[in-house]
Fold this sequence. Notes:
- The relative contact order is 0.05.
- Helix 2 crosses helix 4 (81-140).
- The chain has six helices and no strands.
- The chain is elongated and about 100 Å long.
- The protein is an all-alpha fold.
- The chain has helices at residues 12-31, 34-46, 49-66, 81-140, 148-153, 159-167.
Amino acid sequence: xxxxxxxxxxxxxxxxxxxxxxxxxxxxxxxxxxxxxxxxxxxxxxxxxxxxxxxxxxxxxxxxxxxxxxxxxxxxxxxxxxxxxxxxxxxxxxxxxxxxxxxxxxxxxxxxxxxxxxxxxxxxxxxxxxxxxxxxxxxxxxxxxxxxxxxxxxxxxxxxxxxxxxxxxxxx
Length: 172
């Protein structure tokens, strides 16, 4: 359901946050070390259909020529040892570039997970304060709130205790 005054249901704060995060991502990519940008570019290309097509044509031609199916072209690797060596060396380099890119992506995911955790803890704390305020307003207005769940909601979550419980295998 769209919010009033918006064409796509997003408010101005959400739009601004999206814009800031996109700008930050672009700035981080632009300021990444040259080696990381190179590894990412190579990994992006190696993961494309263009890469597959180039290799299908190149390896296909190599095989066809060295099987002797084109008499006008002399065989240069009849045992395919050079092809196997070339493919192995390429695989070593490509796997290294993929690992470099995955390490960068894992670090980025870890930063975002940390941001999510901090925002969630802040939101939890703020909601706890709001719940406490609502209960106090209800009491001031003479509205009875006798639900044990409200007492629980009014307590801050201790993230270190939650982690300890999860690590000990206790039910949350």
